[in-house]
Amino acid sequence: MRSAFIRTLLELAETNDRIFLVVGDVGFSVVEPFAERFPKRFLNVGVAEQNMTGVAAGLALCGKVVFTYSIANFPTLRCVEQIRNDVCYHNANVKIVSVGCGLAYGALGVTHHATEDLAIIRVLPNTTVVAPGDPVEAAAATRAVAERPGPCYLRLGRSGEPLVHGPRVEFRIGRAITVRDGDDLCLIATGTMLATAVRVAEQLEREGVRSRVLSMHTVKPLDTEAVLQAARETSAIVTLEEHSIVGGLGSAVAEVLAETNEARGRFKRLGLPPAFTARVGGHEYLKAAYGLSVEGVVGSIEPLLERAKSAR
Questions:
Q1: Cα distance between residue 26 and residue 123, in whole Å
Q2: Which domains does the chain have, with CATH numbers?
Q3: Alpha-carbon distance 82 to 88, whole Å?
Q4: What pTM, to 2 d.p., does this model score?
Q5: Which of 98, 128, 255, 298 has its CA 20 to 30 A from that of 43?
Q6: What letter does residue 290 receive in the DSSP assignment?
C-alpha cells in the first residue's frame, strides 16, 4: 500500500504545487522519489512526530496540502494533542498517513503496534478516517483525501498486501464497496482485513453460506446506509478489523445498529482484544494468535450463523 500511496502522491504533486510531504525520519526506500522530484516540498523533521504535526499544521494554515508520514503509532498516538489542538481545532488541511497499521510491525512489540489509532482519531472533531483494503484502494484513497478539505487520517498496511480489486475501483469517501454479494451473512471489513474477509467468504461458500463482503474503507464518516441495508438483507453481520474491538469499525457499526434497533442479536465484532499483547512474532503469527486468520474468523462466525438460522 505504501508504494501505491507514494506513486499516487507523486502524480498529484505534479499538478498541485501546494502538496507537501513531511516525514519523521522513516520511509526511506519509499519516499525518495518524492524527495528527489520535489526537494522544496519535502521535509524530514527527524524523530519528532509532535513537531512534525505542528509544522504540518502551520504549512496547512498557509494554504498548503500537507501529508505527514510515519510508522502507524507514531504520527497518531504520539502526537494526539498536536492533532487535536493544532490540526483539528483549526480544521487544517493536514493528511496524516500511517504505514504498518495494527500488528504489522509485530516483532518490534507493543511500542510499534497501532491498535488504538482508529478509535482515537475517529473521536476527534473534523476528522475523516480512511483505511483502504488493498493497494488499488490505497491509490484511490490518496486521491480522495488530497481533494477533501480538512484533517484526514489515511491508515495503510506495511507492504505486500494482496490485491482484492482489479486495476480500477469506484472509490468515494463515506461509501462502502461491495466486493461480493450474498444474503446469509455480511462481512464488513476495513483496511488490511479485507483480503481475509474475501477468503473467509470463499471458504463459507464451499459450506453453502452466501456471504456479502463490504470494504468499509471509510470508518468516519461511516456508510450507515450500507450497514442498515446489510441488516435488512442478510441474516447476520460481522465486522473485521486489525484494531481493538473498542472504538474502531466494530464500535461504529454497533452504534448504527443499536440506534436503529437493527442488530437483533445477529452481530459480532472481530478484532483485537483491548489489551497489550504479551506475544512477539511476525505479522501473520500474531494475527492468527488473536483469531484473525481465515480459520480463526470462520470458527468465530459459526456460532453466530447457527443462532441466525434458528431465529429465522
A1: 27
A2: 2-156 (3.40.50.970), 177-311 (3.40.50.920)
A3: 9
A4: 0.96
A5: 128
A6: T
